[in-house]
Amino acid sequence: MTTAVTSTDRHRKPLLIPTVTKQCWGFMIGSAFFALASAPGLSEALGSSGANLLCFIGAWFFTAAGLIQLFLSGAISVPVSYAPGRMVRAEWLAAATQSFGTILFNVSTTSALYARSVSTEERWVWNPDAGGSVAFLVSGVLVLVAYSHVAKGWDPGKRSWWSGVINFIGCVAFGISAVGAFILPSGDVVNGSIANGGTFIGAICFLLASLIVLPAWDRPNRGGAPARIADAAGTVAS
Question: Which of 115, 159, 206, 230 is the most buried (most CB within 10 A)?
Answer without folding.
Answer: 230
